[in-house]
Amino acid sequence: MPVLTILYMSKFEISNQLYHQFLDDPENKDNPELQIDTSQWLKKEHYSAVHAQFYHSSGSFKDYPVVNISYKAAELFCKWLTSQYKKVKKRKFKRVYFRLPTEEEWIIAARGRNKESIYGWVGNEIIDKNGRPKGNYYNETDTEQNTNLLKPVNSFQSNDYGMYNMSGNVSEMVQNAKIVKGGDWMHGYEYCKISPMISWDGSPKPYIGFRVAMIVLEKN
Length: 220
Description:
By secondary structure, the chain is of the alpha+beta class. It has helices spanning 16-24, 49-54, 71-86, 103-111; strands at 6-9, 93-99, 171-173, 179-181, 198-199, 208-209, 213-219. Strand 3 (171-173) and strand 4 form a beta hairpin.
C-alpha cells in the first residue's frame, strides 16, 4: 500500500514566541547551534541597538518573526516540532513530520490560486488602494524604517491561500540552504517577487526567517 503524503504549510512565519518554546525545552538549552545571534543587529549594514537589546527577549516582540538563526537551527526546530506533535493525544493526523519547504513548494504556496502571480500577496501591485505598501520591504522614503524594521507575523493581507508575508517582512529559508525567498525589510520590493532569490551562506541574518511545511504520512 502506498504511503499517504499530504503537504500543508504554516500560514505565518515562525515567531519569536514559538522559537523560544523550542529553546526552553530542557533538551535544547545547552545546544549552541540553536541560539539566536543578537550580535547581528550590531553590524553596520543593519545596525539597531534597540533590536539587539529587546527584539529577542521582550514580550513586545513575541509575535514577530524569529531571525538571526542558522539554517541548521531551523532544521532542528522542525525535528523538535515533529516530536512535539507526536505528544498531542487528540491530534488531527496520526503521523506527520515537519521540514523546511522546497523552493517549488514555496513558490506554489506564494502564488496561491493564481499561477500568474508576481508577488506573494493578492494582485500584482505593490501599493494597495489606500496608498499603503502591500508588504514590508525597504522603502528609502520611509522615515520609520530604522525603528520599525520588522512587522508581526500576521501583518498585511494574506494571499488567497490564507498565508501571510509570503512576500516581504523576512526572506524565508527553503531546503536549498544557499538561497532564501520572498524578500524582506532590508531589500527593495523587486526581491518580493516570487521568482527572484537572495544568495545565502546559511548563517544567522536579521532579515532571514522561516516557515515550516508539514507532511502528513498517515491519517487517523
